[in-house]
């Protein structure tokens, strides 16, 4: 039996709900940690995707992104648009889970599980600063290693060497910060060659927690308005991806009549996921 913060995780159960054609796992960071602890005793490597409206729309345009998301061991609702979609479809108030927040939570809770963390991504020096800052914030954090890949196509030999380096460090959680959809594609392509319990794509978390880019103030994050903060910091990059938010909500709106009719005439379409 594994515990964290006095909770018993002999049984883990949470809801999986389809929104915009993607099945999302609505759970807590504590339960995510407990699931990863279960995965440590298996022989497979599982993906954890943090999926926002932009990522949902990318799934419709990019086959590799779609496969990575749909085959993930956990697909978590990153973005206020996902929780709004859940409410519009009649599933009530749901909590989202952003990549930066999940990283902090698992670095904290993971100390009780004994997780080893590897940080892969970011510009030169970012992963090292990230590991240093997190180690200061969470004393006893077990850092297996860090690596910032060059901003170019890697040779086959370079790629093999990186995989071997990661595997030799024996991490439990491999954090990948390459940005969507690049990180999801990398995770999918390397999953069967990696020896770790979980590979989690968290994008901007590397920049935020390393101090490379300012994270949105807590009150902005509380109301799910990080997108405004990021748009203000980097309008040239962010404005295009923000166009996917109304497209996503339009897709949700098309699903609303069918979903509400199903709730009226039959049981709600909520899958219960259980880990024992």
What are the key terms here?
single chain, about 280 residues, alpha/beta, 6-stranded parallel beta sheet, 3-stranded antiparallel beta sheet, 13 helices, about 20% strand
Structure description:
The protein is α/β, with parallel strands linked by helices and 276 residues long. It has one domain. 49% of the residues lie in helices and 19% in strands. It is built from 13 helices and eleven strands. The strands form three sheets. Strands 6-5-10-9-7-8 form a six-stranded parallel sheet, sandwiched between helices. Strands 4-3-11 form a three-stranded antiparallel sheet. Helix 11 packs across helix 12. It starts with a strand and ends with a strand.
Write the layout of secondary structure elements.
Blueprint lengths: L2 E2 L2 E2 L3 E8 L2 E5 L2 H11 L6 E6 L1 H9 L1 H8 L3 E4 L2 H9 L10 H15 L2 E6 L4 H12 L4 E6 L8 H14 L3 E5 L4 H9 L7 E4 L3 H6 L7 H5 L3 H8 L1 H8 L1 H22 L5 E5 L1
Parallel strand pairs: 5-6, 5-10, 7-8, 7-9, 9-10
Antiparallel strand pairs: 1-2, 3-4, 3-11
Helix pairs in contact: 1-5, 2-3, 2-13, 3-8, 11-12
């Amino acid at each position: 039996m594994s515990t964290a913060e006095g909770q018993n995780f002999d049984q883990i159960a949470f809801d999986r709900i389809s929104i915009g054609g993607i099945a999302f796992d609505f759970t807590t960071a504590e339960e995510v940690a407990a699931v990863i602890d279960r995965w440590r005793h298996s022989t497979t490597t599982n993906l954890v995707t943090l999926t926002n409206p932009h990522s949902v729309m990318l799934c419709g345009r990019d086959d590799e992104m779609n496969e990575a998301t749909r085959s993930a061991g956990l697909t978590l609702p990153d973005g206020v648009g996902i929780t709004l979609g859940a409410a519009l479809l009649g599933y009530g108030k749901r909590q989202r889970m952003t990549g930066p927040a999940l990283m902090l939570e698992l670095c904290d809770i993971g100390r009780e599980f004994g997780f080893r963390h590897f940080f892969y991504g970011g510009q030169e020096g970012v992963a090292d600063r990230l590991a240093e800052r997190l180690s200061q914030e969470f004393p006893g954090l077990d850092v297996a290693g860090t690596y910032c890949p060059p901003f170019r196509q890697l040779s086959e030999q370079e790629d093999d060497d990186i995989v071997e380096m990661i595997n030799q460090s024996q991490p439990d959680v491999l954090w990948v910060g390459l940005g969507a959809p690049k990180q999801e594609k990398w995770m999918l392509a390397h999953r069967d060659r990696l020896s770790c319990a979980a590979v989690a794509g968290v994008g901007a978390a590397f920049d935020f927690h390393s101090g490379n880019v300012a994270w949105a103030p807590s009150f902005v994050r509380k109301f799910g308005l990080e997108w405004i903060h990021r748009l203000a910091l980097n309008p040239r990059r962010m404005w295009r991806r923000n166009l996917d938010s109304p497209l996503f909500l339009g897709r949700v709106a098309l699903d609303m009549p069918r979903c509400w009719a199903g709730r009226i005439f039959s049981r709600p379409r909520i899958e219960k996921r259980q880990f024992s």
